[in-house]
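Protein: Voltage-dependent anion-selective channel protein 3
Species: Dendroctonus ponderosae
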Amino acid sequence: MENPCKPPIEEKLYSCPRLSDASGKIDSAHAEVRQVECGKGFGLFGGKKSAEATPPPLIPEEMAPPPYSDLGKKAQDVFNKGYHFGLVKLDIKTKSASGVEFATGGSSNQESGKVAGSLETKYKVKDYGLTFTEKWTTDNTLSTEMAVQDQLVPGLKLSSALNFAPQTGQKTGNVKAAYVNKQVAINADSDFRADGPIVSASAVVGYQGWLAGYLAGYDVNNKKLTKSNFALGFTSGDFTLHSNVNDGQDFGGSIYQKLNPQLETGISLNWSSGSSNTKFGIGAKYDLDQEASLRVKVNNQSQIGLGYQQRLRQGVTLTLSTLIDGKNFNQGGHKIGLALELDA
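Structure follows.
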């Protein structure tokens, strides 16, 4: 009799342990099980094949909201990273065998001729979540910071820093606390200065891609509010929308979008009610390959910024940038920048 199954039978072999044989004795050998499929939509007896259980789609885990200072950061990076107008910079990072991180850098301002530099060391005790940082700058300022993270409460970071200027004897310090989970990011810090402490606090709440944050600053000595900033935004994958109001007078907004793996774009808009000044800018970054990238930005003041970044070899990156004044193109006054980064 002709087989009613259409299309032809597909036979699959599976190997599984045989529990027992006819005598009831356990056999460690593997039995062979045959499963016959009579084509799509048919079972062994011509009925419809039972639908296989389809796993539910994976829902991406909601990321923790950023601190207030990082709201709109992706768009800011499009306009700020990779540009060093009027500067010649050198940054070197290295790490010793014992785990101590060293970072030293220097820059020369082509207009003023001022040279600035810094040396920083950082050591982490991972078992206790401790980080010790010491820094010295050419302004003869010494700073020491100690931070502890995820020890008392998961997501909580506490830090304290002390700054000392030997020439003037001036001492300043600060204490910071930060807590973050999947719904909220809270930051609080206090700067201790000779004229009195300045306390600031911020909170950012996130829900299904929407972000809302508030930042406040208070002068304890003068008993007045120094900052009152509000921000609202939305982020979804490669798209970020950000808006903010500072002290009820300065309004700003930005849009970031990654159009494809090589091209990132950003739009920035700022308006001040006090001076009625409007600033508008468009920027983009394009990755030529894994080693090189191009940057360009332009604003409503006819200033054009161009940047080119090239990784010469592993740990060596060269950045060239220039700022062209479109309104005074023939008069000159354009700026160039050069930066070299070494990471060993």
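Remarks: The radius of gyration is 31 Å.
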